[in-house]
Structure prediction request, 676 residues.
Amino acid sequence: MGGDHAPAAAVEGAAIARERYPNVSFLLFGNQAALTSLLAAYPKLAAISEIRHTDEVVSADDKPSQALRRGRGSSMGLAIAAVQEGEADVAVSAGNTGAMMAMAKFMLKTMPGIDRPALATILPSSRGECVMLDLGANVECDARNLVEFAVMGAAFARTVLGIPRPRVALLNVGVEELKGHEEVKEAGQRLKAVDLSFDFVGFIEGDGIAAGSVDVVVTDGFTGNVALKTAEGTARMVTRLFASAFRSSLRSKLGALMAKRGLKALKDHLDPNNHNGAVFLGLNGLVVKSHGGANALGFASALGVAHDMSADNLLSRIAADLENSGDGDGTAEEAAVS
Amino acid sequence: MGGDHAPAAAVEGAAIARERYPNVSFLLFGNQAALTSLLAAYPKLAAISEIRHTDEVVSADDKPSQALRRGRGSSMGLAIAAVQEGEADVAVSAGNTGAMMAMAKFMLKTMPGIDRPALATILPSSRGECVMLDLGANVECDARNLVEFAVMGAAFARTVLGIPRPRVALLNVGVEELKGHEEVKEAGQRLKAVDLSFDFVGFIEGDGIAAGSVDVVVTDGFTGNVALKTAEGTARMVTRLFASAFRSSLRSKLGALMAKRGLKALKDHLDPNNHNGAVFLGLNGLVVKSHGGANALGFASALGVAHDMSADNLLSRIAADLENSGDGDGTAEEAAVS
Prediction:
């Protein structure tokens, strides 16, 4: 029931996902009448879906603390509870991010060996796509957190982007080892010292994100949130400037048509609906946050991320990688660099 | 002698600036033979220029510590020394940023009442231009530093962008008062509590930079550096995607010509040469860093920034604003929020 186009985008998105992933089935939490009426248009989806009625909804303005107190019976709260109780493999919602993070953390708890969960997403780059985390779950992070984010982000890239041995970097203000915060420098030393199931390539600067220099960009939640929104804002500005520059120079109908095609190709690559699905990594359960403005195709992308994480056993992969990297108990990696 | 197109871009840039600012004169530091030969093409510039020979150059790879030990006699070191000794009003270089920052700080020292200098620049936005600082001079900043950056950034925007009462915001992960680092929240409280010669509008998120929501964006040097480079990288990516999308859809010569015009209009707005000149604010003297890749027009932009700061007595303005904001001695603003 969350997001700008709820619940239609969720139901139509599920109908698209059903065609792509024949093994899935759905629990739909929300207003029974509204969901039943939407499902009527998709009999095949209706056959694999079960509606669980609730009138309660977490609103976009609810604070995380309010959601924790009052949101357990909401559509979002019930979906997360279904994961907690093993009824569902993964919960997907387009609702309030802060509320979802707070409820998921409270109900699912962090995985053994993980200090803090992180919010990760897939971004378009010049070479395709890359993963970035943390995007705002933790405004302050120490070296241990960054190391764990690297392990979780690499497992996510393998699972969702299908990259067997992802290239992982720490976001920094320079590529030299001496630059940056203490936390970033220490995390870099730790990641170099242990044997990992991914390639740690050191530091990258902000322009490396769009350049697609690496598959996974690791940073604290403050910097990651600012970088993500700066990239979105810049892409929007440049696209608009382009469109208006073309409109003013294109007089003919032919020209206008061509401009439209070029804009469409660009927008398809940058469209958040094609890269939808932020994920809370590091919890004992899978939770995917769809963009609030996502349409049905966008919601289907988020469901695709959910499907891939679940089908590939992301949580087991993260647990195994933590074990291998010696970061599980927070001591082995300290020994390695002392 | 610094930058990719030295020393030709500097001399040709000075020739352009001479036409724009009839009152300026130049001290040119570097290889006498090379500079003399370049000046031969610009007799009017030669008439207002004096060459000071040196064979020493700070290289792009020199560490700041090396520049401090060995760079005093270099073209960059001598230019900063000319400001220190009152021979020049402002020093401009396209050379090594770290070296320039270290030498400028060492030779000119920070202004009374300023804890740390900051690196500021002008960025294109949807509404025109905005100022952002710090861009990497300080990877860690406390609330006092951020307050001082706000005062200095506002004075810079008044002087160089000509905005009488700039709108200033702190970069954060949300616009609510409860969000973000402690340092950012405390700086926000301090800026609200004092009477300023600019409008402090609170927090903005990363997408507010390109949207042109404010005239001055204040942040720590780590976040600012990442945000600046992320924006540059994203603008480059989107421009390239656009160009290739259009090329593939435009078959006719007419179409190609129109695409070229559109691209040119966009590039003019985003071209770093039109927004060139990062400035070290908070020192007892004015120092401008031109982009290393700047061409003659770009160097002329940096000289324009230098001219405006000097003509408008930026340093006196900052000193007066510090006095008024009660931040000069680091005590008044603490009383105001206690």
Remarks:
- Residues 221-249 of chain A form the longest helix (29 residues).
- Residues 167 and 214 of chain A are 5 Å apart (CA to CA).
